[in-house]
Amino acid sequence: MKNKEFVTKAYELARKRYATLDIDTEKAIEKLQNIPLSLHCWQTDDVTGLEHTENELSGGIQVTGNYPGKARNIEEIRNDLVKAASFLGGNHRISLHASYGDFKGEKVDRDQIEPRHFESWMKWAKENNLKLDFNSTSFSHPKSGELTLANPDKSIRDFWIEHTKRCRRIAEEMGKYQGSPCVMNLWIHDGSKDSTVNRLKYRSILKDSLDEIFSVPYSNMIDCIEAKLFGIGAESYTVGSYDFYLGYGVKNNKRVTLDTGHFHLTESVADKISSLLLFTPGIMLHVSRPIRWDSDHVTIVNDDTLDLAREIIRCDALDKVNIGLDYFDGSINRIGAYVIGSRATQKCLLQALLEPLEQLREYEADHRYFERLALLEEAKSLPWNAVWDYFCLINNVPVGEEYIAEVCKYEEEVTGKRR
Ligand SMILES: C[C@H](O)[C@H](O)[C@@H](O)C(=O)CO
Ligand SMILES: [Mn+2]
């Protein structure tokens, strides 16, 4: 670590500065250390998956960019994930899509997948001190079409119901194996390009499909349902809208996934946290960065991500919120994309953990709104970055921009050689 002494000295000063506001930096570091991020496996390979089919990416999502070096098989995906995680302090999780099973060249259709197709992932995760989360995959399949679980055609609908039921079973086995509940996210793209005159019909079918899927109780997995505003080619109507899943989640005690790219651009996702916490058992986050639309740009430290982190901490909800990443950028070094996005999320969480919350709340209770605003402003430039550097130092991961050279080295030695 080239700046060890400098980093330690800066941290000592920062610790004292924060102490003047009664903030314990050691406690903040300890908390950050114990917040797992769920790294989305699909950033390694532009959401290609391991089914070895010719299926194009579908379902209203799109990866842009053709940067060389994407992972081409299970070994490369795993190596890249381990590499990406090696840049992060703390212990983390990997979020797998059902299309990333270890199929060993066998053609296994989505309604045939079993826990055995994910056994080697479970072992791999354990060996690498990682835990797994899971996602059903309704897109990029000949039966994906416009509608899956909301399809009036029973044979297509049953195919996807079976797929999703199997996914829950796989998640249950993963949770059991790893001794930590596997968070299973259900997102489907179902929708329509142009105005439908049957909004209620498809939503009612989706509700029934979900009821059937969730009829089997499990104790080692956590169900999450993810809403979306629109998809490419499904701009007018999304069956699984936010209102739909919020209603379903509240009624059926399910976690709602908030993907930061799935709302109107001026809507505050952070503001939803406190409301959901009052009415649902928890929240799954898909941290992303929408630019003009759900563009899945790499997460950075910005007001949206900071507000999200602050709300989690202000609500004291770390035990009820699972934090996953969800972006896919094929235009830059893909490992670099993981590192930037996951470290940005950690930086936001750290800033939130270092907020002088008690003092701010005292001001607010006393209606001293000038003081509240002033302290909120000043808190922005407190030396959180010295605490961040120190967090990286004690975790033996690159400090500051040092990771750039390491990512480039991996590119030179590994990803850059993939053709
Ligand atoms: C690949 C993921 O399942 C997908 O990104 C989903 O979570 C989503 O956000 C779709 O827009
Ligand atoms: Mn998402």
What does this structure look like?
It catalyses: L-rhamnopyranose = L-rhamnulose. With 419 residues, the chain is of the alpha/beta class. The protein folds into two domains: 1-23 and 356-419, no CATH class; 37-353, Divalent-metal-dependent TIM barrel enzymes (TIM Barrel, Alpha-Beta Barrel). It is 43% helix and 12% strand. The protein has helices spanning 4-19, 25-33, 74-85, 119-127, 154-178, 199-213, 242-252, 270-279, 303-314, 334-353, 357-365, 369-379, 384-394, 402-413; strands at 37-40, 93-97, 131-135, 182-186, 191-192, 221-226, 237-238, 255-259, 283-287, 289-291, 293-297, 321-325. Strands 1-2-3-4-6-8-9-12 form an eight-stranded parallel β-barrel, surrounded by five helices. Helix 5 packs across helix 6 (199-213) and helix 9 (303-314) packs across helix 10 (334-353). The chain starts with a helix and ends in a 6-residue tail after the last helix. The model has no long low-confidence stretch (mean pLDDT 97). Manganese (II) ion binds next to loops.
Structure at a glance:
This protein has helices at residues 4-19, 25-33, 74-85, 119-127, 154-178, 199-213, 242-252, 270-279, 303-314, 334-353, 357-365, 369-379, 384-394, 402-413; strands at residues 37-40, 93-97, 131-135, 182-186, 191-192, 221-226, 237-238, 255-259, 283-287, 289-291, 293-297, 321-325. By secondary structure, the protein is an alpha/beta fold. The chain folds into two domains: 1-23 and 356-419, no CATH class; 37-353, Divalent-metal-dependent TIM barrel enzymes (TIM Barrel, Alpha-Beta Barrel).
Write the layout of secondary structure elements.
Elements (H helix, E strand, L loop, with lengths): L3 H16 L5 H9 L3 E4 L33 H12 L7 E5 L21 H9 L3 E5 L18 H25 L3 E5 L4 E2 L6 H15 L7 E6 L10 E2 L3 H11 L2 E5 L10 H10 L3 E5 L1 E3 L1 E5 L5 H12 L6 E5 L8 H20 L3 H9 L3 H11 L4 H11 L7 H12 L6
Parallel strand pairs: 1-2, 1-12, 2-3, 3-4, 4-6, 6-8, 8-9, 9-12
Antiparallel strand pairs: 5-7, 10-11
Helix pairs in contact: 1-13, 2-10, 3-10, 5-6, 8-9, 9-10, 11-12
Bound molecules: ligand L2XQQQDX and manganese (II) ion (MN).
Manganese (II) ion binds next to loops.
